[in-house]
Specification:
Length: about 70
């Protein structure tokens, strides 16, 4: 599968493919826009692929494992 990762909009989000042949979209978010600090931790191992959101909480980045995406 194809994954497109970008980060221009300053909001972190994920859109699954809407149709066959379309890529999965991830917006990386922002590390500098106050109040919107976010990112993703990607883990790729063989056929196992996950993305876990990361958000700034109390001046440190914290993984959000309850929002993990597996594909």
């Amino acid at each position: 599968g194809v994954v497109l990762i970008h980060g221009h909009i300053h909001w972190g989000y994920h859109h699954p493919p809407e149709a066959e042949g379309r890529p999965r979209l991830f917006c990386a978010g922002s590390c500098t826009h106050a109040g919107r600090e976010s990112g993703w931790l990607y883990e790729l191992s063989g056929q196992d692929r996950t993305a876990t959101p990361v958000r700034l909480t109390d001046d440190r980045y914290v993984l959000q494992p309850d929002e993990l995406i597996r594909w």
